[in-house]
Amino acid sequence: FHVHYERIARAIVQVVRDPARAEEIAAETFWKFWRNSKAAQGGQAFGWLYRTAVRMAIDELRKEARRIRNESSQTIRQPTRTPEEAHAAAEERDRVRLVLASLDRRQAELLLLRNNDLSYAEVAAVLDLNPASVGTLISRAQQAFRKEYVTQYGEPNYER
User: Fold this and answer.
1) Residue 160's pLDDT band (boundaries 50, 70, 90)?
2) How far apart are CA 39 and CA 45, in angstroms?
3) Separation between Cα atoms, residue 13 and residue 106, nearest integer Å
4) 92-130 pLDDT, tens per residue?
5) Are 39 and 48 a contacting pair, CB within 8 Å?
6) SS3 for 40?
7) What is the pLDDT of residue 33?
8) Which residue from 138, 137, 128, 134 is spatially nearest to 49, judged by alpha carbons?
9) Residue 134, number of CB atoms within 10 A of its CB
10) CA distance 147 to 129
């Protein structure tokens, strides 16, 4: 717990963008680890913890995406009072989260773990992959992300 908690919570907060919820998910991850410690003994504990944390964060992201879709279909959006740049950045973050939530779980995990500055070897250990294939899998995940983004929102507008 003391060795991995902070790093796991940081990885989760980058996904869910809510430090309090990230701490809850991290605690739930360690609770699952305690209850299923036979599944992740020894050197596998590191990978099991990260894999479980990322999956739980993705599940939370998907739950939030469903909530946003349900709320937006039921309510009329009020104009925001934030500056245009802040609004555009928040909108883009929401788009990225929704696209990640719609990707295959493994692809989303690859992108999130790599975004958290894990090396290819660490990503391979977390997801139980061949280290030689991680680069190719990440490349495919990036292509799938771009394709899904373009399908949902069109070409990105970088002039914002």
Assistant:
1) very low
2) 8
3) 19
4) 889 999 999 999 999 999 999 888 888 898 889 888 899
5) yes
6) coil
7) 83
8) 128
9) 22
10) 24
Average pLDDT over residues 68-88: 68
Per-residue buried b or exposed e for 53-80, using 16+ beta carbons within 10 Å of the residue's own CB: bbbbbbebbbebbeeeeeeeeeeeeeee
Question: Per the confidence metrics, is the pTM higher than 0.70?
Answer: no
H or E segment at 100?
A: helix 84-102
Q: Which amino acid is at 75?
A: T
Mean predicted lDDT score pLDDT of the chain: 83
Q: How many helices (H) and strands (E) does the chain have?
A: 7, 0
What element of type H or E holds 67? helix 44-74
Structure tokens at 107: 């692809």
**57: three-class secondary structure by DSSP:** helix
Tokens of residue 26, six digits: 């991290």
